[in-house]
Amino acid sequence: MSRTSPVVRWSFLCSLLAVLAGTPSFVADAKKPLPSGLSVSADVVRTDAAKGFYHCAAEVIDLATGKVLIAPDLAFTAEAGGRTKKGWEPEGYGPSFEVVFEVSVTKAGDGASYRVSYSREGVPVAIQKGSLTLR
Predict the structure, then answer these.
(1) Where are the alpha helices (DSSP H) in the chain?
(2) Is 89 helix (H, G, I), strand (E, B) or coil?
(3) Are the C-beta atoms of residues 60 and 71 closer than 8 Å to each other?
(4) What pLDDT shows up at residue 43?
(5) 45: closest CA among 129, 114, 134, 110?
(6) What is the rounded distance in angstroms from the CA atom of residue 63 to the CA atom of residue 91?
(7) Residue 89 has what pLDDT?
(8) Which of 24, 47, 78, 128 could form a disulfide with 105 if both were Cys (CB 3.0 to 4.6 A apart)?
(9) Cβ neighbour number for residue 55 with a 10 Å cutoff
(10) Is there a contact between 128 and 116 (Cβ–Cβ < 8 Å)?
């Protein structure tokens, strides 16, 4: 009869217990893919041109899941611009995420620009910028 070393038996026992118990959630979360991209639609209109007030309605969608990440509806001034953020710990990804949407208007008032930052645990994963012409 052959004898196996205690190390081999212990290793086998740990492997068997891991299989019976299932994969720990932190291992499964680490293997899930990150969102691959963003779709951003934004509309900026003047609400009171004389006073420099504007309105922005936007929608940011995760292309990997098709889910709306944030849909800001902002009233802002040309001087201050608009900014909003949303953070969460999505089921299936594990770590926390944050989306920041910023919008501003040019000094001449003929254009606007937006910036979307998508971060995981405080580290940017995706940044998207765009500009619009105001009429």
Answers:
(1) 6-21, 25-31
(2) coil
(3) yes
(4) 95
(5) 134
(6) 17
(7) 75
(8) 78
(9) 16
(10) yes
* Contact predicate 74/86, CB 8 Å: no
Structure tokens that stand for 118 in this block: 């998508």
For residues 94 and 30, the answer to whether their CB atoms sit within 8 Å is yes
In order along the chain (135 residues), what is the average pLDDT of each group of 10 residues? 44 37 40 66 90 94 88 94 87 77 93 93 88 90
Task: At 4, list the tokens.
Answer: 């196996």
| Maximal C-alpha separation, the chain | 95
95/1 Cα distance (integer angstroms): 50
**What DSSP designation does 110 have?**
S
Task: Name the token pair of 116.
Answer: 């979307």
For residue 122, what pLDDT is reported?
Answer: 84
d(CA 119, CA 95): 10
Structural tokens at position 43: 């509309």
Query: Can you give the pLDDT at residue 35?
Result: 54
**pLDDT value of residue 25:** 37
pLDDT score, position 3: 55
